[in-house]
From TrEMBL:
The keyword Transmembrane helix does not apply. Keywords: DNA-binding, Transcription, Transcription regulation. It comes from Microvirga puerhi. The keyword Cell inner membrane does not apply. This is GntR family transcriptional regulator.
């Protein structure tokens, strides 16, 4: 990560005599530099200590400014790497094709990753029983993950698979579909439903967007070639980063018969 302050951010941009708090002045300076293209997507900011020293302000001021810009989606903090200008990424996702997040990102030339939030094995809930066509007492494997593209959080994914198909949820490292393929139960079709929602505080924090930001909630039930339900996944996709596209075919109009 760069230890030098971008030229666009100068000491002159912070004025202690200004009634605006210094952390807000710093936020405004960074946002202005991004708008003007002086600093670009994926540019790294100096570390908190270095930035505070170079600007002559406290680390608390820098931390507060960065935290606010992360929540606004201007900056992104990548685990183990540092703080970067957030990519202005917007992805088109076709609704007519069944594919994994990993495959989707790979097709766009973007590295994908996942952060495990939780995983468990237990008896299926009533909703899971209904979605997967299971019997009371049947067990399922659950995997909750944060999905990232090029280090940017894009979606929260909660996947539920019957335990007979996925006996050990720890097998899922990257692509769930790759694991199901290895188990011989690759989905061949799916039913999806989606609607708009507002993110909760916790969800927004994970996706690094402001609380109550719009998102797309998608439920997917996937089936094998023999018709067995193999996956029930619910996901929250960032509304500022995704466009879902459906290709429609138009049926020919009914032939008009005229009386002779």
């Amino acid at each position: 990560m760069s230890d030098q302050m971008p030229e666009a951010l100068s000491l002159a941009s912070l004025d202690e005599s200004n009634p605006t708090p210094l952390y807000l002045q710093l936020q405004q300076s960074i946002e202005e530099a991004v708008r003007k293209g002086a600093i670009k997507a994926d540019d790294a900011l100096p570390g908190e200590r270095d930035l505070a020293k170079q600007l002559g302000v406290s680390r608390v001021t820098v931390r507060k400014a960065i935290t606010g810009l992360v929540k606004k989606g201007v900056l992104v903090q990548r685990w183990g790497s540092g703080t970067f200008i957030a990519p202005q990424m917007r992805l088109e996702q076709p609704l007519s094709r069944l594919s994994s997040f990993t495959d989707d990102m790979s097709a766009r030339g973007l590295p994908s990753s996942a952060i495990l939030l939780s995983r468990s094995i237990g008896q299926a809930s009533p909703a899971e029983l209904m979605a997967l066509g299971l019997s009371p007492g049947d067990e399922v494997s659950r995997v909750n993950r944060l999905r990232l593209a090029n280090g940017v959080p894009m979606a929260i994914e909660h996947a539920v698979v019957p335990s007979r198909f996925l006996p050990d949820p720890s097998l899922v490292k990257q692509s769930l579909y790759a694991v199901l393929h290895e188990q011989g139960v690759m989905p061949t079709r799916a039913l999806q439903r989606l609607h708009a929602v507002l993110l909760s505080d916790d969800q927004a924090s994970l996706l690094q967007v402001p609380s109550k930001s719009p998102a797309l909630y998608i439920e997917r039930r996937s089936f094998t070639g023999t018709g067995e339900a193999v996956e029930f996944t619910s996901s929250y996709y960032r509304g500022d980063a995704y466009d879902f596209v459906a290709e429609l075919t138009i049926s020919p109009p009914d032939r008009i018969h005229q009386d002779a």
